[in-house]
Amino acid sequence: MRQKYLPGPRIFAFLLLLISSFGTLSAQAAVCDVDNDGDVDRIDIGQIFAARNTVATGPDDPRDADGNGVINVGDGRQCVAQCTLANCAPVTPNTAPIADAGVDQNVFSGELVSLDGGSSSDADGSPLDFVWSLASLPTGSSATLANATTPSPSFVADVPGTYIAQLIVNDGKVDSAPDAVIITAVEALVAVPGVVGQAQSAAEAAIAGAGLVVGTVTTQSSDTVSSGTVISQNPTAGTSVAASSAVDLVISSGPAPVTVPGVVGQVQAAAEAALVSAGLTVGTVTTQNSDSVPSGTVISQSPAAGASVTAGSAVDLVVSSGPA
Question: 0.70 exceeded by the pTM?
Answer without folding.
Answer: no
